């Protein structure tokens, strides 16, 4: 059987005020203040922040140095002449594929028996010509100079003038032969002229490219020609 707890009578408890005199011995805060521990902690925190700042700066400089070294290694690993050759091969292979396609389309247009051997031979010859022209006239990033001895500010205008003349000439002459010459002349001349026209327009700045196409369109309209 559970026993009942006796409750003390509150009237028997003596009441008194709490001791407000304060501690008789130094507290932990006072001891820390006497030993200057708070100031030491602040100084230590500042020192750690300075060390972190130095470490981050040094790591950033090392990363930038590594990036610069990698870029220099990449540049050093690809000589300008090799870059020009690779750029030339990339473009001329694309132009040769375009020549191959135009050659096949022209022969199909005139219902001529297609000879893949002859088409391949003509494409190979066009490839060699395109390699020479592209390597000489294209503005390579590693060597944008077109004419030695000419000031740099005249290099791009000279190149744009050449491609503008080539674009207008190739476009107008292609329109002319397709309307005037026989199918044999068209089959022989249309593929290289078409490639030269496309390449010249690509090499031109936008304003000059639009102007060259406008000249070809004006020639088409003025002569009463059409695309056959």
TrEMBL record:
Residues 7-22 have a biased composition (Basic and acidic residues). Residues 159-227 form the DUF7719 domain. Coiled coil: none annotated. Keywords: Membrane, Transmembrane, Transmembrane helix. The keyword Cell wall biogenesis/degradation does not apply. Residues 1-30, 42-77 are annotated as: Disordered. The chain crosses the membrane at residues 158-176, 196-221. Residues 62-72 have a biased composition (Acidic residues). This is DUF7719 domain-containing protein. It comes from Thyridium curvatum.
């Amino acid at each position: 059987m559970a026993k009942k707890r006796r409750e003390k009578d509150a009237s028997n408890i003596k009441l008194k005020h709490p001791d407000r005199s304060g501690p008789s011995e130094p507290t932990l805060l006072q001891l820390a203040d006497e030993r200057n521990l708070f100031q030491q902690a602040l100084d230590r925190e500042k020192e750690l922040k300075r060390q972190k700042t130095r470490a981050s700066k040094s790591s950033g400089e090392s990363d930038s140095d590594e990036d610069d070294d990698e870029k220099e290694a990449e540049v050093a690993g690809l000589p300008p002449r090799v870059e020009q050759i690779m750029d030339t091969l990339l473009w001329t292979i694309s132009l040769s594929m375009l020549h191959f396609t135009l050659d096949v389309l022209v022969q199909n247009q005139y219902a001529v028996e297609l000879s893949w051997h002859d088409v391949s031979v003509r494409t190979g010859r066009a490839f060699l010509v395109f390699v020479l022209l592209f390597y000489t006239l294209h503005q390579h990033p590693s060597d944008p100079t077109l004419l030695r001895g000419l000031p740099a500010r005249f290099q791009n205008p000279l190149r744009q003038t050449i491609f503008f003349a080539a674009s207008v000439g190739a476009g107008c002459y292609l329109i002319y032969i397709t309307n005037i010459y026989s199918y044999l002349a068209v089959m022989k001349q249309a593929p290289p002229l078409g490639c030269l026209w496309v390449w010249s327009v690509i090499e031109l700045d936008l304003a000059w490219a639009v102007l060259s196409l406008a000249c070809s369109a004006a020639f088409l309209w003025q002569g009463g020609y059409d695309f056959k």
